[in-house]
Amino acid sequence: MVIILAAACYYYFAIYNSVRDVRTHPDYKGYSTGEALFSDAQLIVIGRPIKDFEDREMTIRTLENDIPVDFYTLTEIEVEKVLKGSEEDASNLKVIEPIALKQTLSVKEKLAIGDYTEMKSGSSYIIFMKKKYLWTI
Asked: Is the model's pLDDT at 52 over the cut of 70?
């Protein structure tokens, strides 16, 4: 019984909860200058995520064979300062991050576009956004 319990604990902590990075090729608009980035953004804020990454609302859409075709995380932001745009747009702010966690039988996969890493709770960020359906980074 002890051996089975030890094996189950090992599986849960060492395998099931381990995280493997899965990166996809990015397709994004680049800017040659900071002024161009500032000019094109509709809302620029300094803010921090309210929740830890694992506690945020994540969406993963897959094909029938479980291959991800779309993924993102909705991140609620506590706005410290609005640098461009209206205070009204910055209230109750949620942004879309191009990253999500997918649990499999053997590992957690962190799906991300390019080298994107999730915003850390407790850290402040300057966030440049455009509005589509929600505010996107």
From this structure: yes
In-domain check, residue 73: yes
Q: What is the DSSP string of 67-105?
A: -EEEEEEEEEEEEEEEEES-HHHHTTEEEEESEEEEE-S
Task: Render pLDDT for 26-38 as a digit per residue (tens, 0 to 9).
Answer: 667 788 999 999 9
Q: How many domains does the chain contain in total?
A: 1
Question: Which domain, by its residues, includes 124?
Answer: 19-136
3-state SS, residue 62:
strand
Torsion sign over Cα 93, 98, 21, 64: positive
Residue 57: both structure tokens together: 């609302």
Q: What's the CATH code of the domain at 85?
A: 2.40.50
pTM: 0.73
Longest Cα–Cα distance in the chain: 65
- 33 falls within a domain: yes
